[in-house]
Amino acid sequence: MDELHAALRQAWRRARPLLGHVWLCGLPGAGKTTLAPLLAAALGIPFVEVDAVIERSAGKSVPEIFASEGEAAFRQREADAARAASRGPRSVISLGGGALGSRAVRLAVRKTGHLLWLARSSCALRRARRYGTAAVGREPGGTACGAGGGA
In whole angstroms, what is the distance from residue 150 CA to residue 74 CA? Predict the structure, then answer.
């Protein structure tokens, strides 16, 4: 029994229950923009949306950056913004799915907090493609996806 208690004490010392940043990552429409401020409010910490930081600093939208500067330039801006956010106060930080392709971003995430990957059902992805929006809730007609399935 003493060994069990010692093991539990050691596990608690090693545990980091959401200390540091909470990184939200996922593909477009996964719910990062919706969930980040809600989670931040629940935890009582600020949130940072990396794409919004990039858009403010560049003075143009993400699609405009891709069109005028290319993906490599956007990914560099993204890595710089993610590293800057990682050095800031404890926050909920929202990243696009492609950001984890950068070793620098993966390292920043690993060293400074916890990563939560947000996934979407294929039904929700079809709705997003059909309506050109994140389509987090129900379709405009008020029906869930398919005859018996929700998102």
Answer: 35
What SS3 state is found at 137? coil
Classified by CATH at the fold level, domain 17-119 comes out as: Rossmann fold (3.40.50)
List 94's β-bridge partners, or say none: 24, 49
Kindly report the pTM of this predicted structure: 0.72
Domain map of the chain by residue range?
17-119, 121-151
CA distance 13 to 7: 10
- DSSP one-letter string for 89-109: SS-EEEEEGGGGGSHHHHHHH
Which candidate, 31, 55, 44, places its Cα nearest to that of 92? Answer: 44
**Pair 75, 66: CB distance under 8 Å:** no
62-103 per-position pLDDT tens digit? 999 999 999 999 999 999 999 999 999 999 999 998 999 999
The sign of the CA dihedral 56, 59, 63, 67 is negative
The phi, psi pair for 93, rounded to 5°, reads -120, 125
